[in-house]
Amino acid sequence: MADKWSKHIWKSETVCKCNCGLNRMSPDIIKAAEVARFGVNIKCYNDPKYWDILFRQPDYPDEIKLCITSGSRCQAHNDKPQKEGGAGGSRMSEHIAIPPKPTMKSSDVGQSSQAFDGWFYYLSNGKQIRIDASEVLIYMWDMEFIGGLILYPKKRFHVSTGRRYASWKDLRGAK
Ligand SMILES: [Zn+2]
């Protein structure tokens, strides 16, 4: 398990993209990622309530896959604009992780990332076909997640377990 956070989430997927090596994820966001990658398939293929998510796709997918594009970020990489190779995140982004300060005080634990970005897709003749996250994640609203979902263009999304954004409940009505 040294190279994994959980059964289906690899540590290499969440490490800061600037090569600083920072990789701190909160247990809650790993739980959310695990559900998004594995739980989503269990739910969609076993619960008839969710079958139309699959039927709405151009081909009936064998498996819904999750691509994680961003997890932990150091402040510098987060703040750097995208056109300069950074993440171009907001200054207080929930992706930001902070290592514990080198101090004698054991109370400083730093901060773990509470967010990941990515998209859902399935393979059709070797081609990636993206699936709308709001459809796939709809059942997560039944779960006790604190945090939210932000939808970006091109079916990309951001999931957080922090308190900064709208709750799953709020989003249910928003559609
Ligand atoms: Zn970094």
Write structural notes for this entry.
With 175 residues, the protein is an alpha+beta fold. The chain has one domain (4-174). 23% of the residues lie in helices and 19% in strands. It is built from 5 helices and 7 strands; from the N terminus they run E-E-H-H-E-H-E-E-H-E-E-H. It has helices at residues 27-46, 51-55, 75-79, 133-136, 168-174; strands at residues 4-6, 9-10, 65-70, 115-124, 127-131, 148-151, 157-160. Strands 3, 4, 5, 6 and 7 form a 5-stranded antiparallel sheet that branches. A hairpin with a 5-residue loop joins strand 6 and strand 7. The longest helix is centred in the first third of the chain and has 20 residues, at 27-46. The protein is globular and about 55 Å long. Residues 16, 18, 20, 22, 74, 77 line the site of zinc ion.
Give a brief description:
By secondary structure, the protein is α+β, with helices and mostly antiparallel strands.
Describe the structure using short key phrases.
175 residues, two-stranded antiparallel ribbon, globular, alpha+beta, binds zinc ion, five-stranded antiparallel beta sheet
Number of domains: 1
Give the distance, in angstroms, between the N- and C-terminal Cα atoms. Answer: 38 Å
Distinct bound molecules: zinc ion
Tally of individual helices: 5
The stretches of 5 or more residues where confidence is low (pLDDT under 50) are 166-175
Shape: globular
What share of the residues lie within helices? 10-25%
Find the count of extended strands (DSSP E, 2+ residues).
7
- Average pLDDT works out at 86
Q: What percentage of amino acids are in beta strands?
A: 15-25%
The major β-sheet equals:
5 strands, antiparallel
Helix/strand class: alpha+beta
Work out the radius of gyration.
Answer: 17 Å
